[in-house]
Amino acid sequence: APLAFTMLQLTRVSDGHSDFWGNATLDGQLSHRLEGLNLSQVLPLEPPAAWARRKEDVATYLGYFTNMVKFINMERPINYTQSLCCHLGCRLFPNGTAHSFYEVTLNGTAFLSFHVPTATWQRRWPRQDTVATFAHRELMKYPQTTYDLQHFLNVSCVDVLRAQTARTAGKQSSRSHTPLVLGLTLGAFALVGMAVGIFLCTGGRC
C-alpha cells in the first residue's frame, strides 16, 4: 500500500457566516485538526515557534475568506447553504513513484481540480457555468495557487513521505523538516481565490 499524506478542508457558508472543519493525516495517523479558526497539531511535527507562525498564517487566510463572504452577503444575500470541500495530498508508492492531487467539490459535485504536472486548474463542473469559469480564472492569477501549490504537492509533500519512509527503516534523513500544514495554508488561500466566484457570481453576474 502507498504511504500517504492527505488533507481535508470543509467550508460551509450560510447567511453570511462561514464554518470550517478539517484534518490532515500522515500514514493514516491524524496529524492536524482544524475547527473553526483553531488549528491544532496532533503530532509534534513542527517546533513551537514554527508552529505558531503556521497557525497564524492559516487563521489569516481563513479570516480573509470569512470577511469576504460577510461583505458579499451584505451586497447580495444568499438564502441557502453552500458547502465547499477541498481534498489534497500525495501518495508515495513502494517503487518510488508518487502521485499528488487537489480536488474541490461544491455542494457535493466535482467543481475544480488541480493538474499538478502543469500547475493548472481544471473545471470539473458538469455544465459551463460563470461561477466555475470565474473561480478558475481567479485561481490561475496567483503563484500561491499555481506554482507554490505545485511545489508543495509535487516536492514538499513527497519529501515528507520519503523522510517518513527513511525513519521507518531506521535511517537518518538529511532532508530539511518541511511544515506539513503549509498545504492547509495554500488550501486556505485557494478558498479566498474561489470565494468571489462561488458566492458573488451565484445568482447574478460576475
TrEMBL record:
Gene Ontology terms: biological process: negative regulation of coagulation
PANTHER family the UniProt entry points to: ENDOTHELIAL PROTEIN C RECEPTOR
One Gene Ontology term of the molecular function aspect: signaling receptor activity
Protein name from the UniProt record: EPCR protein
Keyword field contains Transmembrane: yes
Keywords tagged on the record: Glycoprotein, Membrane, Transmembrane, Transmembrane helix
Entry GO CC: extracellular space
Encoding gene per record: Procr
InterPro entries: Endothetial_C_recpt, MHC_I-like_Ag-recog_sf, MHC_I/II-like_Ag-recog
Residues passing through the membrane, by range: 180-201
